[in-house]
Specification:
This protein has helices at about 5-15, 25-35, 65-80, 85-90, 95-110, 110-125, 150-160, 180-195, 215-225, 225-245, 265-280, 305-315, 325-330, and strands spanning about 20-25, 40-45, 140-145, 165-170, 200-215, 250, 260, 285-300, 300-305, 320-325, 340-345, 350-360. It is an alpha/beta fold and about 375 residues long. The chain folds into two domains: about 5-195, Alpha/Beta hydrolase fold, catalytic domain (Rossmann fold), CATH 3.40.50; about 200-360, Nucleotide cyclase, GGDEF domain (Alpha-Beta Plaits), CATH 3.30.70.1230. Helix content is about 40%, strand content about 25%. It starts with a helix and ends with a strand.
Length: about 375
């Protein structure tokens, strides 16, 4: 049994007793170990885990067997590509670096046949009868919008394990390290030590780039929902590729908008110009806004007044236009970027008046 691997590793490491942490399909495995070897289990922690992965009359959560079969076929056909990211890590599904990493990870981790065999084995797992036998301190963590493992299944497990603590966290990502991992780690630290860590937000100077599709509602109406979704997917992939190429990071791709950050305004401007060129091949027009300021970094999220200013600058741009705040204009003084003054404006929700500048030329 795979459970014996845990014991073998502990023996080899000279570990008599340990906290067992099971992630996703590691949850059932860890649960079986805790039930079988309670004396060697200091505590049991699970994240994104499940007791059963097939929807049935007595377990109304998760995919049906038919849905799993369709997934088997898709994974076998597209193994080694970014397949599954929209389910596993929707917040990063259009991040080109994450897409490349995931595709490479799949190719290195297993062959298509071995991967599907493991997938099929995990689908057949059903440890519901084991849950009431757990007699060790247990913490179950789950993100509310997890698209792979429904939160209801985790809540069910917590109700079946005596004394288990269940913590439901915001977020849609199944992959633990995507999204707000700090909050998950804080819950684990508090559970094991009784101490709650102070999670201080990092503050950094960053350049924010906002990109919006012009007249997106009208275009969606013209071509229909299905074709529009495909078009937006292609658009997001093209944008993410350009952002990654120029050293930026996609923070959010809500709707047809893109929010990215860069370590300097010149890269952000180059990216905006490149994106404007490539999305033209899709028949789309965009508007862009760029601002540089202090941003608050909380996990994978980026917030702060600088973000709001960047979004408001973008909202002021005309179709095909790249607008800069005066802060960015000052920072690129002496560069090859030529700008024209667009006058002084009020930005919704931002105090004072802001002078904006439109990019005319920039070095490629």
């Amino acid at each position: 049994m795979r459970m014996d691997d845990i014991r073998a590793v502990m023996d080899a490491a000279g570990s008599n007793r340990a906290v067992i942490f099971g992630i996703s399909e590691g949850g059932p495995l860890s649960t079986l170990f805790a039930a079988t070897y309670p004396g060697r289990t200091a505590a049991l922690i699970m994240y994104g885990a499940y007791a059963k992965w097939i929807r049935t009359d007595d377990y109304p959560w998760g995919p049906t067997r038919e849905q799993h079969e369709a997934a088997f076929n898709a994974y076998e056909k597209h193994w080694g590509t970014p397949i599954g990211l929209k389910t596993l890590a929707p917040s990063a599904a259009n991040d080109e670096r994450v897409r490349q990493w995931w595709a490479q990870f799949m190719r290195i981790a297993a062959s298509p046949g071995a991967g599907i065999t493991l997938y099929r084995m995990n689908v057949e797992v059903d440890i519901r009868a084991i849950l009431p036998t757990i007699r060790v301190p247990t913490l179950i963590l789950h993100r509310r919008g997890d698209r792979l493992q429904p939160c209801e299944g985790a809540r069910y497990m917590a109700g079946q394990i005596p004394g288990a603590k269940f913590v439901e966290l915001p977020g849609d990502d199944h992959m633990l390290w995507i999204g707000d991992a700090d909050s998950l780690l804080a819950e684990i630290q508090e559970f094991l030590t009784g101490e709650t860590p102070m999670l201080e937000a990092d503050r950094v100077l960053a350049t924010v780039l906002f990109i919006d599709v012009v007249q997106s509602t009208q275009r969606a109406t013209e071509i229909g929902d299905s074709r529009w979704r495909d078009l937006v997917d292609n658009y997001h992939q093209l944008v993410s590729k350009e952002v990654a190429r120029l050293g930026g990071r996609v923070v959010n791709t809500a709707g047809d908008g893109v929010f990215a950050t860069f370590d300097g305004p010149a890269r952000a401007i180059k990216c905006a110009r490149a994106v404007r060129d490539v999305v033209g091949s899709l028949g789309l027009a965009i508007r862009c806004g760029i601002h540089t300021g202090e941003c608050v970094i909380e996990g994978d999220d980026v917030a702060g007044i600088a973000v709001h200013i960047g979004a408001r600058v973008a909202a002021r741009a005309d179709p095909g236009e790249i607008l800069l705040s005066s802060t960015v204009k000052d920072l690129i003084a002496g560069s090859r970027v030529e700008c024209s003054d667009r006058g002084s404006h009020t930005l919704k929700g931002v105090p004072g008046r802001w002078r904006l500048f439109a990019v005319q030329e920039c070095a490629r």
